[in-house]
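Worked example (supplementary).
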Amino acid sequence: MLRIENVNTHYGQIQALHDVSVEVRQGEIVTLIGANGAGKTTLMMTICGDPQASSGKVIFDGKEITGQPTSMIMQQGLAIVPEGRRVFSGLTVEENLYMGSYFRSKADADVTAEHVLELFPRLRERYSQRAGTMSGGEQQMLAIGRAMMAKPRMILLDEPSLGLAPIIIQQIFDIIQKLRDEGVTIFLVEQNANQALRIADRGYVLENGRVVLEDSGDALLTNEAVRQAYLGG
Amino acid sequence: MTETSLYLIQQLINGLTIGSTYALIAIGYTMVYGIIGMINFAHGEIYMIGSYVTFIVIAGLMSMGLVSLPIVLLIALIIAIITSSTYGWTVERVAYRPLRGSNRLIALISAIGMSIFLQNFVVLSQGSRDVALPPQISGGWTFGDPSVFEVSFSYMQLLIWLATFLTMAGLTLFISKSRMGRACRACSEDLGMTNLLGINTNKIISMTFVIGAALAAIAGLLLGLYYGVVNPFVGFMAGLKAFTAAVLGGIGSIPGAMLGGLILGVTEALTSAYFPSEYKDVVAFSLLVLILLFRPSGLLGKPEVEKV
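After joint prediction of all chains, the assembly is encoded as:
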């Protein structure tokens, strides 16, 4: 469904990604793990076209999206829950959700909104509250809900568990699996490698902008090198 | 009432009149800053162009024999808004969009260049002298004791108050309720994220310039009729005043621009009422310096938080 082929990305003179190739198939949860600064977020953002890859191809649903403007890429069935959530703190929960469905009709969006609120009852309680006044966990739910509002076939999640309490993290991971059961393909970036690999079908390990390892989630969980580096021995 | 209090009331009326037009222009500065973080120094010229178009259209319609004032004003308003908006939109496309993402200073210099360009463009096409228009709306109310001090409130002032109030109410409604207004607020919080939601933020930015220019055109029509005279250089001072108003209220904040405009107008009126009137600009810009020194975020602005 998503194929990243030999992608190189630069920030000015600095090369952040080297010849990265990743594939995410329809209905999979694929996770990308790696240390701080390995280039995980850069890869996510390169898929979205911000920054653009300096070479290589990103193919989504059989169509090359490399070089397209970000706003166009994000209208083709791809949505992102970005690092740090980035909800609009001055907008209400309702307004935030409907920003996610800006290019869809109101009637279609209403149906999806109802589904999102069923999945996240907390958001219904806070519906007309400003997003900035909510807890980190609630904001993360809102960011996921906002991504769902576009009715994407694939969601990119960048560190959704960052800075959250363990009980909330569990909820977020449950939701991710639920999304997959509904047919949404998931590409998940995590530092919380243990939990991410446990729900993932396959995983990639990124080091210094290069893919160094690729295997099934279970295999990576038991891989000695991965255990040493990312799972605390 | 005593003479001093009647005199004060008159100054407040005058101050609120000028202040509301400052507020209209200030909104253009504040909305653009709110979204792309740049000061559009060519905005004063957009206002000046609005004034010129108003004069030309009114004079033209009059010479064609159209005498119904409301219709003349309405046509002038529509044409002024369309012309100014076209200029505002074009300025963004030509002078700012290609520079987006570069250093803030570069866009600022481009804006100053655009301002000089537009000023001289109007000098070349319309001449640099004052153009006058006979008063279109005369008369008004007077109250107070004629032997002490007579306060006058003209129909023209009433029109300025009403038009400003309606425009502001409409804008507030648009920003808070409409789909595009919501996108506008989202853009001013996080332009990149709005883009990541599949929204073409370039369109939203263009729209911001168009709205700001339309409001400046309304101010251009009102102030042009109020003073009855316009020249290619009025945009410079009005732009600086409106910019001061925007900073005073908190740049990026729309209610702030409204409040800042009114405060600045009243301050100026009171200064020229009780001191030699040359001091009014001194006081206005001292206010700018003081605000920048002691409350850089303005009266209603939020302090700028460094995003990580």
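Two points are worth noting when inspecting this output. The CA atoms of residues 17 and 157 of chain B lie 6 Å apart. Chain B touches chain A through 18 residues (CB under 8 Å).
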